[in-house]
Amino acid sequence: MAKSVVASKAGGAAETSMEDILRSIEKSNQEIRGEIQLMREDVKEFKGQISESFNRLETSVGGLSTQLTTLEKRVVDAEGRIGDTEEKAAIHGRAISFLLQQEAELMERCEDLQNRARRQNLRLYQIPEGSEGRDMVAFIKKLLPTVLPSLPLKEDDIRIDRAHRTLTPRSKESDPPRPILVGFADYTDPTAGLDTSQ
Description:
Blueprint: H1 2-119, E1 121-124, H2 136-147, E2 160-165, E3 180-184, H3 188-197
Antiparallel strand pairs: 1-3, 2-3
């Protein structure tokens, strides 16, 4: 009987120790399941964060792509405008060169015309005021052959376009008489007169 009590105690102790082991395993399993659950939640949260980061990154890349496209378009437009401006500048440069050449030619012609016009003019000094009467042209036609007798011209050969006193007013009677300007129709008339008078 003593053997059976020891055996039964030994059997009970074995059962107790088995139950303890099972409980311990079950407790460990629950702890492991809890940690696995926590790990799953952490992984899920991490996936959410990664997904959110990727979404932000995609949005940023999309914005950069749009900006890059806009910048490319602006560069192409700017290159087109620069090309147009360079073409216009070249055209304007050629036009300016042509106009400067034309201006030089016109200035030369103008100077030539002024010189020709001056050759057709004669200025007479020290002729008393009022001696010309009412017809200055007739007065000059009569005056020239008498003042310059060496002229081979007769009164009817002298062709005068205009004759008048300078437009400066006389301030006093004692002032010298105003010069008379004579414009000949043919510039050889005053030239011949001047050559013979010298």
